[in-house]
Amino acid sequence: MTELATLARPYAVAVFKRAKETASAAKWSENLAFMTAVMDDSTMMSVASNPKVKKDQLAQLALDVCRDKIDNESNNFLKLLLQNNRLVLLPVIAKIFEELKAQNEGYIDVEVLTAFPFSKEANQTFSATLEKALNKKVHMNVAVDKTLIGGVLVRAGDRVIDGSIRGQLQHLQKALQ
């Protein structure tokens, strides 16, 4: 994954710079998400990985599928990825783009795993606490993971906050060894 991120970062940064120049970050976000969804489709993946399919045929197919859903600049970007054999980087490019966009807009996407569902009040309180701790506006994606036993596991970019009982037990186990 780190190798893919290394290859994808220059593309994501270039797209982000262009999005800032044209004040079209939301549109680029939609277009990258759509292109990623198209390329993640099992049929499209099998065509893309088939060595008998020529690059220009794959390019034409991808452009035909995306034609009415993405703008001209995104079409050109898709062509560039196809020409450079970098189509596999599209999901990573989209992820890095979203991180850059979030950083620029002053928020952070946070994944919260909890052993039990949050009540509405607990969700608001936890969100406010995270905003203070991270010094950014927080967009939380909360999911229930019963394997945590209790507590929460928070992933905010590269930062991980493990307040789960499972994590504490694992830490205790390591300390005892």
Please specify the SSE layout and strand pairing.
Elements: H1 2-21, H2 25-40, H3 42-49, H4 55-66, H5 72-83, H6 90-105, E1 107-114, H7 120-134, E2 137-144, E3 151-156, E4 159-164, H8 165-176
Describe this structure in words.
The chain has helices spanning 2-21, 25-40, 42-49, 55-66, 72-83, 90-105, 120-134, 165-176, and strands at 107-114, 137-144, 151-156, 159-164. It is built from 8 helices and 4 strands, in the order H-H-H-H-H-H-E-H-E-E-E-H. The longest helix is centred in the N-terminal third of the chain and has 20 residues, at 2-21. It starts with a helix and ends with a helix. It is elongated and about 55 Å long. The chain has a 4-stranded mixed sheet. 63% of the residues lie in helices and 16% in strands. Helix 7 (120-134) links the parallel strand 1 and strand 2. The protein is an alpha+beta fold. Helix 2 packs antiparallel against helix 6 (90-105) and helix 4 runs antiparallel to helix 5 (72-83). It folds into 2 domains: 2-102, Peroxidase, domain 1, CATH 1.10.520; 107-176. The mean pLDDT is 88.
